[in-house]
## 1
Amino acid sequence: MPLIIQAFSGIAWVAGYFTYYLQLAGYSTSMSYQLQIAQPVLSIVGNLMAAAVIDKVGRRNLTLYGLGILTVFLFITGGLGTGTTQPMIKGTVAFILIYSWWYNVSIGSTAFSLLAETSTSRLRAKTVAIGYASQNSINVMWQFVIPYMFNPDKANLGAKIAFIFGGLCFFSLLYLWYFQPETGGRSYEELDEMFTKGVPARKFKTYKTTMQMRNETTAQSGSH
């Protein structure tokens, strides 16, 4: 599911249409090129930051609250996109760049860890394959749909298209809150046990598995 949320979060528009948006917004070819170069640089910075904090913050927290912040960015971008003044246009560009950075700090990075860690070891290869196939199917859909929503000779939404992705992110947050467990610091045996016992996703972090209780008992026995 995290890979599907990636596809719903608007990255197809941000990554694929940023230069085109800059041209429509009146930026010169030279400036459009420079800003386009800045976008992947910010994405790389975001990836490195995610690698540094994911174990400290936790997969669930970084994904859930990170997507929440991303949702706010999208709604702000859409709001700025309703205006035609130069400051508002520059504001949309700024928030698209901020989005590119924060996306890779949060769901853009954590989804891959979650996909590998939540799938049982027996079915991991199939789970990963299904996850990527589902994501690619949605991205193919966006390749057909986004031009009709974005282009000036069609719906002409421009940056207001961010409202659509913001709405999709909002509903994705509900899924993450109720169904996305914290997998950090857990072995595959522990995760399998918690899934088998139906432990609620929000309690994965504090739940004591059979292995943990056995280790605690052994440690207490050894101290006497």
## 2
Amino acid sequence: MGQTRFANGRQLDLICLGRLGVDLYAQQVGARLEDVSSFAKYLGGSSANIAFGTARLGLKSAMLSRVGDDHMGRFLLESLAREGCDVSGITVDPQRLTALVLLGIKDRETFPLVFYRENCADMALRAEDIAESFIASSKSLLITGTHFSTEGVYNASVQALDYAEKHQVRRVLDIDYRPVLWGLAGKADGETRFVADQQVSAHVQKILPRFDLIVGTEEEFLIAGGSTDLLAALRRVRELTAATLVVKLGPQGCTVIHGAIPARLEDGAIYPGVRVEVLNVLGAGDAFMAGFLSGWLEGADDEQCCRLANACGGLVVSRHACAPAMPTRAELDYLFSSPVPITRPDQDLLLQRLHQVSVPRKSWKQLFIFAFDHRGQLVELAQQGGRDPACISHLKQLFIQAVERVEADLQDQGVAADIGLLADQRFGQDALNAATGRGWWVARPVEVQGSRPLAFEHGRSIGSNLIGWPREQIIKCLVQYHPDDEPMLRLEQEAQILGLYQASQVSGHELLLEIIPPKDHPSSHPDVLYRALKRLYNLGIFPAWWKIEAQSAEEWQRLDALIQERDPYCRGVVLLGLNAPAEALAEGFRQARSSSTCRGFAVGRTIHHEPSRAWLAGEIDDEGLIRAVQAIFVQLIDAWREARA
């Protein structure tokens, strides 16, 4: 392929115009849609998936569509923005709801889906929504076929094409033929992929000459060409446009046609697909397009564009969902560098891990975390004060108010930091509910307090408990672990930790491991903490976070080197307090000042023990407690900042 020329100096690589809705995927694979009991919520819509996928692959992509002024619309905006996609071209429609789709995975050939799109927001896109300056800011514009299916979206798409041609923006068509969205199949029949219709063919053919690149499946080129014979359809398309044609051939791969249509597709270059075990074909085409465009927009040749496209499609068909299943560059590099074909991506542990850790994640600044996940200690204080332990729930809600005040103080001072908390489910559920959804770092414990060997509060089936957790909440697990423990104890604890880590990989929650070697352990071997972390890494356990005691500056250097060598994706280390005096913690902060992995502190009893005792004893009221907790929390923050100054 001759290298496509793109205009220079453009802010964006790609604008995607088209469907933007919510996919609700059945979680029970093999069930009829009628029998499904739960769904997972993902960003969806062909254009949106492509915008999402190209952003994940490093392109500067943008979305041009509408969403409703509703919870699902906000979810879509946040999902795209979090991935790095420009959402300035998305209009919030106060009159219509965001589109929804229900999807199931019955077997390898059956994928029922039902579109809930009547009078939905993205189909209300109008010509006046299209800003000329926005289109002119991009190298390319992609439009999917659905957005030519009604008069309103047709006019909007044509307006975008007019601006694109005026400003030398390359135009891409994803034919994306869904008969149900053209009124050619039953309302609940979203699965049917081809219904011949000459009116639709004639309608599509009107816009074919306006594109530089046209991509579709065999069935989609049949509708575009108005024939049930693929070669005849391609020849008709070629009569109408000189565009590069990319024909997707399913598991066989794809072919790229620049000039005349060959007598047989096999006479041209067929770029083979990636052989994988298929779970879900829905979204494979969107992943293919994202991969192809990631090469095309960077000037790659046909072979490389198709290699990227086929790899992206192959990975997505092996996973649940579409947009969240899109691969990163790190995943593709790993796939391409593998000495043997990876036919079961779902069983490749490193690939699974890369899919979690190499995607865009919230960036945390220095972390100031108030840990009040204590249970037994607060029960003892309540009993000493003659109070019903049930009041601890209210106590922890007061802690939230203290955290709010500390955050407000930091913002007033212009301090670049993030606030966090650790709270338990037993007494802190209301506090967790109040903290979630506001951008705080939030974690909750799973261990039975004081257990050794490690036990979980809700039994061994930790994964079933995580189902009910908000995804943003971090799993915190304290383990009294020593690498020189008696073998049976060590192996039992390691099995529990490994099981927890694997459960976190499935649920998508980040894991924080708090490692506290027992103080009364008979072993006198040095470097206990260093060896403990190294041992867990050797077992294939890679927590997002570590929580450890204060270390010397020299030991921090060794720990930094270990973490950077074994897990460059580690989110960092936070210092625990162990009820140490503030002065002792300040010294620990100073020792960690040069650490590249220590991100902050997570301190509890040093902050809340005395205020809690006084409140439970009736010596101070709610406001007194809030002020006391706030003062100690601020004192520790000041000590941290002074150590890092």
## 3
Amino acid sequence: MTSTKQILGQDESSQPSYVDYEAFLAPDFSPAAYANDLVVSTNNPQDSPLDLSTPLSRVLFDAQEVDSRIDALTTRNAVPLLEFTISQNQASKRIISELDTQLKSLNDSYKQLEKEVIDKHAEADEVRHVALRLWESLRLGRSVGRCLQLGRHLEVQHSELNASDAAKMDHRALVRCSYTIVSLREVLDSKGPDEEGYGLDKVHNIRALQDSVITPLERSVRETAERIVRDFSVPANMTFSQGQEARAKLESAITALYLLSPTPPLTTSGTKHERWTPQLLLAALDTFIRLSLQASITALSRSLGQLPSLDRALAEVTLRCQNVIALEIILQENKPPSHPLLPPPSTAASATHKHPASLVQPLLAYLETGSLASYFWRTMAGSLATRVQDIAHRGGVVARTLRSNKANVGDAIRQAVLTGSQPPTVFTTGKKKKDKAAEMNWDREIAVMVGSVTNNLK
């Protein structure tokens, strides 16, 4: 097939043209430079104004010449051009037909893939979601069932605690109730996505269980344990069996308060667990000691204004101090119970934070003292000094009587401190305990107590 370039070449050789095609086809052709040359060549530089009609006519003639040449070429070479166009069109159709076949095959393959993979994957994904929801329902159902079962156990255990006859009350039910409450906390506080208690807060029965069973019974157990600690007393005429019963009752109460004390979440760092202290237990013990101190200070302050009642007041103070010592003995002989919500201490943490060997250590650290008896007498002396100063400043018969009997009062207080610093006899049945109690030196406590009265009567 004859090319267009060959046709143009043949036409140019047969019919020469005055149009300078070489200039127009040059790569560096510039329309502005060509127009400037055309104007300069058709005008005299000294003429003013310039004649632009001649160069414009030249450009128009050139355009007409090019247009005529195009018409002549297309007319003369119509057959080759049409043949070339037909061949290109046929080639395009062949390409399109091949592409249509490939596209149809691709669409068929996609439909087959969609049928065999995508649809089945959608069905499998739906089944997977159903299985996951069934598993979540099963897990939630098990958690709900466990909580309801623990709630039922708690009700039964609490009924043993709240017997109609106080003498028949099983104080060991305090510990059982506490462990059940801790188990419920373990489930209900595990609210992570992969934990046992996830989603329980949305279950109506669980919310009802918390409001009607767990919360009121936990409060009842805590108040019962606090009351047992608050009412703990070891009278002088208590028998050994009664003392053991009082000890067991107090041990159940302090164990319950230890277990019910708030704990940090299991997801927190181990440092918080190592520094954890049983707040409910410490608060109950601190309340017991402060009530004993308050009653002792009030009784002794009143008796200093009425000396005939001093012996009775000192006997009461002695008994209260012995109660505090009995409490310290019981705490010293009891190790902290295992707490399900507290992880075992790690070796590295144990090197810096020692796990308390007995329940008395957290209390001594809380009160910042080395002995409860020493804390009792020193705290009492600090408050008693102010009361004695008030009596001395008011003057009168009471102050004169107290000054005249200062030596006798000092001796009575000294004897009360010595007697009150000895543990109750029901807790010193062994020879070692008696020897240990006899070895204790209370000279500083005696000096502080006697000085709080005699030194303020000058």
## 4
Amino acid sequence: MSMRIGVVGLGRIGQLHARNVVLEAPDAELVLIGRSVDRLDATRKSLTVSLSAESEVEAEPKISMRTLSDAWADGLDGVIISTSTGTHPDLTRYAVEHGVPCLVEKPLSLDLAEIPQLSEQLESHGVPIMVAFHRRYDEGHQRLRQRIRSGSMGPIRLIHAVNHDHRHVDPDYIPHSGGIWRDLLIHDFDTIPWLLDDRPVSVYATGGVLDAEVYSDCDDFDTASAVITFASGSQALVSGGRNVASGQDVATSVYGSDAAFSAGVDDHTPVEPLESGTAPSVTTYEDFMDRFAATFRGEIRHFLAMVRGETDSLTPPSAGIVAARLAMAAEESARTGRPTRIEW
């Protein structure tokens, strides 16, 4: 079935999603949606040139444009919303009110306290929605979840999640990012409860600014960690950092009484072993798009299958409620210097 898939917001992640739509569905029409016709046209030309060079794309991709001032959802089979977070609620509402399945970047709203009510409102339309917690579509994390669910690991005791950005965030982005808890570590706050199928009951969080005062100016951190306690008694240690110059490092290790497994510890891991007979990784990941290149493509593959009615969303809006609660609790803990209880 030939589809018409829109992309609203054409920054780095929006353009990546646009490319992956064409790579996964070469017969689809890609509709670029934005405010500036000049920027839309420049992006269209750039994508056409780069995609035409891909061996997987046998014909020139079908790419059209429309502005947000138009009835932008008309005739779309699906839409990807990758604009700034503050616009997510209104754009997602508009899409589902017009019956258009969505993939919307996380978080669903900058106001995390709004997410439960917003999720209920959006899901009441019965239109499929994926919130872009991409690790649920990552092969390694899916396998890790299967191992945990199989019971073969025994009781799960400890989880260690590493989420270290290779570079500092663009200074212009920091004031609008929501901060390290909502922008970076919210992925771990989503992934770990999903892996364990367990409810967090408390979090103790701390953070600091080591080498870029622009974070302090925005009440943000460039280095942070959190200890999460779950209802089962399992504990998770989450560490997040910007400008970890050895390379992008995102991994989740789970330790059970009978076995331990990880997702993301591979021959690109940017930690150099010092024991005799060991060797450092030859190459490391440059950034999160490099680290999760296959995952982002798999996410779009799942989205297109959802649009065709072949599968369900793994990340409906309500799936983000736990991550939102954890992010808010971490913010409170870091502010007060005390553990924060989470009541359900």
